[in-house]
Amino acid sequence: MSTSHPDTADVAKALTARQTEVVRLAASGLTAKETARRLGISKTTVDEHLTEARRRVGATTKSHLVSLAIASGIVAG
């Protein structure tokens, strides 16, 4: 199975609003547990949002995901 990697302009389109919100909070330095508390969801749900966001943009790690989000402009660098 080949993974499609959207270019940076398509990263914002690839993510849901909630995934984008979770990525932004991760980029700001919050842990999954802190993000869960802030959003009123479980840590497992935060982890699932990050995993799905990574899959959608072809990122291999959370750091890679954040760097793609910064490059695309959805997270301030």
Detailed description of the structure:
- With 77 residues, the chain is mainly alpha-helical.
- The chain has one domain: Orthogonal Bundle (Arc Repressor Mutant, subunit A), CATH 1.10.10.
- Helix content is 68%, strand content 0%.
- The chain is built from five helices and no strands.
- Helix 2 crosses helix 5 and helix 4 packs across helix 5.
- The longest helix has 15 residues.
- The termini are far apart.
- The model has no long low-confidence stretch (mean pLDDT 90).
Structure, briefly:
With 77 residues, the chain is an all-alpha fold. It is 68% helix and 0% strand.
Index terms:
77 residues; mainly alpha; Arc Repressor Mutant, subunit A; 0% strand
